[in-house]
Design a protein that fits this description.
single chain, 4 helices, 133 residues
C-alpha cells in the first residue's frame, strides 16, 4: 500500500486543478488530454472518476472558444467599418478627380487660346471689358 505510484484522491484533484490553472496561465491549449498529461493521469481517469472536473474543463474550453469567436467577430465588424469608410473616401476622390479633370481640360483650351492670341495667330472676336466699343 506504500506504493509511490499510489495517489490520494485529494492529491490527484489538486494536481488536476493545478494543471488547469497552469494551462490557462500559459495560454496553452486547454483540453482534458492536455490537463491529464500535465497532471500525469489518464484522460479516462478525469472522465470517469472526476466528471465534475471534466465538465469544468469542457466549460473553460467552451468559454475560450466563444471568446476567440467573439474577438474574431469584433475584428471583422471593425474591418468592415474601415472598408466602408475607405470605399466612401474612394468614391469622393473619384468624383473630385473627375471634376478636376474637367477643369483642367477647360484650362488647357484657355491656355491654347491665350497662346494663340499672344502670337497673333488667333484674334478674339469678343470685345475686351472696359473698352466701351
Amino acid at each position: 500500500m506504500n506504493d509511490p505510484k499510489a495517489r490520494s484522491r485529494k492529491k490527484t484533484v489538486d494536481e488536476i486543478q493545478r494543471a488547469i490553472v497552469q494551462l490557462q496561465a500559459d495560454q496553452g491549449k486547454l483540453s482534458i488530454s492536455a490537463v491529464a498529461k500535465l497532471a500525469e493521469v489518464t484522460p479516462g481517469l478525469i472522465h470517469n472518476t472526476y466528471p465534475d472536473l471534466a465538465e469544468k474543463i469542457r466549460g473553460l474550453v467552451g468559454k475560450a472558444t466563444r471568446a476567440q469567436r467573439d474577438a474574431k467577430h469584433d475584428a471583422l465588424v471593425h474591418e468592415r467599418e474601415v472598408n466602408r469608410a475607405l470605399r466612401q473616401e474612394l468614391a469622393e476622390t473619384r468624383a473630385d478627380l473627375s471634376k478636376l479633370a474637367s477643369i483642367n481640360q477647360v484650362l488647357v483650351h484657355e491656355v491654347a487660346l491665350l497662346k494663340g492670341m499672344a502670337t497673333g495667330k488667333v484674334v478674339s472676336i469678343l470685345q475686351p471689358k472696359g473698352t466701351g466699343i
